[in-house]
Every structure is written in C-alpha cells, then in structure tokens.
Amino acid sequence: GPDGAAVLSALQDAARDADLWALPLPTHLGGGGLDLTEYAPLAEMEGRSDFGPTALGSDLLLDATMLDRHATETIRERYLLPMLAGRGGPSFAMTEPGAPGSDPAALTTTATRTGEGWRITGRKWFTSRAASAAFTTVVCRTATSGDPRRAFSLFVVPTDAPGYRIRREIPVLGAGGQYEIALDIPVADDHLLGAPGEGLRIVGERLAVGRTLRCLRWLGQAHRAYALMLSRMTDRHTHGGPLADKQLLHAYVFDSHAEIAAARALTHAAVAALVDGRDTRVAVGTAKVVTARALHAVVDRAIQVYGAEGLTDDTPLPMLARTARTARILDGPDELHITTVARRLLAERH
C-alpha cells in the first residue's frame, strides 16, 4: 500500500546516499560496477530480506543490462534512464495462459508489421509488477515459418498506452504480485529490442543471469530459514530441556547445513561460468535445481521445528514456503533442467 511504498522509497534514498545503490550495475548506468563474482555474496545477503534487492536497486540488473545492450536511443531515453533514476519500473512478459512456459514454440502473442511499425496482439500472464511498471518487455512471435529459433522478437510496450489492459491479478499460493495482461497495441519500430528474430537469443542472455541471481537470493532465504530454525531449537524448551537437545532434530541441522553448502558451491560455479564466458547451461541448470530443492527442504524443516506457529504469519516461514515452492517451477521447472543437463552430460561422452 501507500505506506509501504513510502518506506521503500525512503530506503532507496538511503541506499543512494550511502553509495549502496545498484552495486552490480555498470558505472555508466549509475551503478557500483561490481562484476557478478564480486556481487554474489552481497546478492545472497540481500536475498535474506523480502525487499532487499528492490531497496538497494540491484533488482534492476536484468532489465537495465538488456536495454543497455539492445535498446534504441528512443527506448534508452524514454525508459532506461528514468528507470535507473527510480521514476518508472520494468516488467517482463513471456508466458501465456494455456501454453507451457518451458516451450516457446507454443507462444501465440504476435507482432505483425504495419505501415508505421508493429501491432502486438495476445495475452500474457505471470507478468510481475505489471500494475506498477512503466513498461513491459513482451516476447512476440514475428515469423510463422523458417528457423523456429528466429521466430520471436522482443518489444518494449508502454503500460499506459491504449490497448494495454490488466485483466486480473493472479493469486499465487495466496499471495499477489503477478498479473495477466491483454495486448492489442501498436508500437513503433524503435520499440523493438535488437533485430527481428533475436528475441530468444536475448531472452537466453537474460535467463542465464536471472536464474543465477535467483539462486543467490534463494541461498539468502534458505539461510534465513536455517537461522530461524536454529534459534527456535535453542530457545524453545519442552519436556525439561531445549529442542536442541533432541537427537532427532540434529539431522535437521546437519542436512540443512549440508544442502545450503552444496547449493552455494554449485551457484558460485555458475557465477564463475558466466563471468568467464563459458557455456553455462549445465552449471546454471544444476544450480537452479539443487538450490530450489535446498530452499524447499530447509524451509519445511524450519516449519516443522516451529510447529503450529510456523504455519502462521507470526513468522516469515509461510512466505518463505511460497517462495520455495514456486522456485521449483519459475524460470523452468526442475524436470526441464534435469533433462537438459542430463542430455548434455551424456552427449559429452560421445
């Protein structure tokens, strides 16, 4: 609500004053210029807070990098620079109702050539922040024949334009923030990112970094749940002693510690692959699956240790549980990554 927005704005101003704003963004975009290796431990710390990346401006990294690399001068001036100044946030629209998000070939939203540019028609859902964003980057089909990998393009669409309509907010396990949108809107040529047919390549760039950033922030959330569990085990007394004395719960501590450590090692391997410019598909896919599973397992144990209280909003655990469950689906379900990684590992033996 308005009170929350005012608090968040004050935190963002404080971050700017303390030179903590947008640390992973390039310096020419007003950021701190940290590369992903330098930013990784900070990303994990930011992830411990629900609003850490937004309060510190690092959640702009994906959209700022994408627009900086691929946008026309018109888009840079109209959307990129105001976004960096905090005057207009981004959103991204790829998946569609009735179409598996892991299969781009099933997407039906189209951008059709007109005399003055393009006309975008279709529906998207799971479009984060659509209600508050200044623009949405939309994945559109621009070709119906030829190489399917070059059948899609990306367009920057203003959210205040006639023909951009929010159909509904989608509740996800009881929480909001995701939207279904309908589009029937003309856009000029200069709203195209890159060249026609380069959409999936640009999305691939975004996903490799985005999945790795999610892993880093999930590590922060797993550590938060782990710390809550340890605190509860130490402070809660039952049947004459603390829960920490119960031997059965020692396995919770060990397993959670081991799973977080393994997920962290795999995530930092993915960071290294990105920074070095190597093929990231095995490293990122493995980190994404293992880190999502670790978060889910650690949060579940923490809830078990808290008992009935862990099911209530008196603790952050229900929110962490929602994040943990969606983690195994967002940016590609576990099954997709497992199959993709396994096939590549098998292919390397030939």
Automatic annotation (TrEMBL):
UniProt-listed Pfam families? Acyl-CoA_dh_1 (PF00441), Acyl-CoA_dh_M (PF02770), Acyl-CoA_dh_N (PF02771)
List GO BP terms, alphabetically: fatty acid beta-oxidation using acyl-CoA dehydrogenase
State the needed cofactors, names only. FAD
Q: Where is the Acyl-CoA dehydrogenase/oxidase N-terminal domain?
A: 12-86
Q: Does the keyword Oxidoreductase apply?
A: yes
Q: Which SUPFAM superfamilies match?
A: Acyl-CoA dehydrogenase C-terminal domain-like (SSF47203), Acyl-CoA dehydrogenase NM domain-like (SSF56645)
Instruction: Specify the Acyl-CoA dehydrogenase/oxidase C-terminal domain's residue ranges.
Output: 197-346
Q: Give all residue intervals belonging to the Acyl-CoA oxidase/dehydrogenase middle domain.
A: 91-177
Q: Which InterPro entries match?
A: Acyl-CoA_dehydrogenase, Acyl-CoA_Oxase/DH_mid-dom, Acyl-CoA_Oxase/DH_mid-dom_sf, AcylCo_DH-like_C, AcylCo_DH/oxidase_C, AcylCoA_DH/ox_N, AcylCoA_DH/ox_N_sf, AcylCoA_DH/oxidase_NM_dom_sf
Q: Which UniProt keywords apply?
A: FAD, Flavoprotein, Oxidoreductase
Entry keyword DNA repair: no
> GO CC annotation: what is one?
cytoplasm
A GO molecular-function annotation: flavin adenine dinucleotide binding
The family assignment reads:
Belongs to the acyl-CoA dehydrogenase family.
Quaternary context: Homodimer.
UniProt name for this protein: Acyl-CoA dehydrogenase
Look up and give the organism this protein is from: Micromonospora endophytica
